[in-house]
Structure formats: C-alpha cells, structure tokens
Amino acid sequence: MRVKILRQQYPGAEPYWQTFLYDGDADASVAAVLDTLNYKDDVVDADGNHAPRIGWECSCLQGLCGGCAMVINGHPALACETFVRDLGEEIVLRPLSKFPVISDLVVDRGVIQENLKASGDYIGEYTPPSPKEHAHQYAAAKCLKCGLCLEVCPNYGKGEHFYGAVFANDCYLVASTSKEQGESFRKEYAGHFAAGCSKSLSCMEVCPMQIPTIASMAKLNRRG
Ligand code: SF4
Ligand code: FES
Question: Which residue stretches of 8-99 are H helix?
C-alpha cells in the first residue's frame, strides 16, 4: 500500500509530497501505519531515498486526546480511529488546513485556547445545573479540542470573529454552570458563534465525540 504524505520540515518551509510503502496489517489504524513507517533505523521513501521521520502527534491512541487529527484521504479524522481496511489502495495524509503547520502533520491549534481565553472562559462561582441539563452537559464536555469541526466548517477562517463549534459547546458549558458568567457568555456566544454560523452542521458529522452542537446552540438561544 502506498502512503502519500504532505510534508513540511518547519513552519514556513515549502511543503512537498513524499510517498512511502506500507506492507503491514490491513486492520491497523493510520496511527499504527505512521508508527511503523517511523520506527526503523533508516526511514526510506517508496523510491528508496532516506527521509526524515514523519512528524505527527498522538497521546492516547484511543480517540481521547484529539492530537492525531489530520486529513485522511480528503476527510478530516483522527488517525488512531481510521483503519487501513477502509481506505482503499492508497492513503493520502495532509495536515489540517485551518491551522499553521509546525512540522508535517503537526499543527498549532493554540488558537482554540486563545479564543476561549479572550472570551473570559472560566466558570467563576459554580452553580449546579438543573438535572435536565446533565445529559447534554456530559455530551458537550467530551470535546477534545481536536479542531476537526473547524477544518470542515465553511465559515471558520473567513474572519477572526467566528470561533466555530468548539466555542459554542464551551459557551453552553459555562452558561449552564455559572451564574456569574452566564450573561456575559451569552454575549460572547452571540458575537463569536451565532452571528457567523450558517448552520451547515458539518461540524457534527465530523466530530469524533459525536457532540450534538445543535443542542448547545438551541439551549443557548433559548436562554438568550
Ligand atoms: S466539537 Fe468535536 S470536532 Fe470540534 S473540537 Fe470538540 S471534539 Fe473536536
Ligand atoms: S492519539 Fe489521541 S485521539 Fe488519536
């Protein structure tokens, strides 16, 4: 199997494609393929040329940290939850396009945290939420901050004011547990999410935690 990877040695360097050969287990995940390609004394590409080790990120290898988010055969997904058997004859890997590349498949998703920080994302005095909120609170709190929802969103990246689905879910969590922050967070939600969302809902299709962002939106709109 051929594994074609869009590579970039360092931030700002010229990207280039490099192809590798993988002849391991068809039940392996893309994360395991990357590990197999990297853990050799000499990493060589499909033409036998020496290649630098492939930069990619992971921590959990079980769909829980979000680190391995990348574009796999054109679809934004987690490498540890995407399997060779589902990918056909060639695997094509690119870094997420909505974030600056650090190295190969590693991107800087710091903007997600920066946006939360800029909006004053803290709970302050905790107010126990109504039991009616518990189920959706649990769902929204599963967010990995992986950035896949931002990658597919047609509105994210068009201007600096729209923070995307990841922000809507955090707004809901804060607004539903904080008396102190509830009001100001509804304003942040209106300015940095509701005003820019065209409801393509592609964020929900791609979310590895299957967070129903539309429910966060409905609950925040009802509070507004
Ligand atoms: S909402 Fe889903 S896709 Fe978006 S950052 Fe959170 S876990 Fe990832
Ligand atoms: S390595 Fe943690 S989600 Fe893939």
Answer: 30-38
Which atom, in ligand 2's list, is nearest to the CA of 60?
A: 2
Which run of H or E residues covers position 222?
helix 213-223
**Superfamily, domain 2-107:** Beta-grasp domain (3.10.20.30)
CATH of domain 110-223: 1.10.1060.10
Q: Which atom of ligand 2 is nearest to the CA of 68?
A: 4
Distance, CA 32 to ligand 2 centroid (Å)? 11
Q: What is the pTM of this model?
A: 0.94
Give the pLDDT score at 224.
58
Q: How far is the CA of 148 from the centre of ligand 1 (A)?
A: 6
Distance 121 CA to ligand 1 centre (A): 17
The residues that bridge with 93 in the sheet, in sequence order, are: 5, 72
Query: Mean pLDDT, consecutive 10-residue segments, the chain of 224 residues?
Result: 97 98 94 96 95 97 97 98 95 98 98 90 76 92 97 91 94 83 77 91 96 93 73
- 75-78/90-94 β-pairing: unpaired
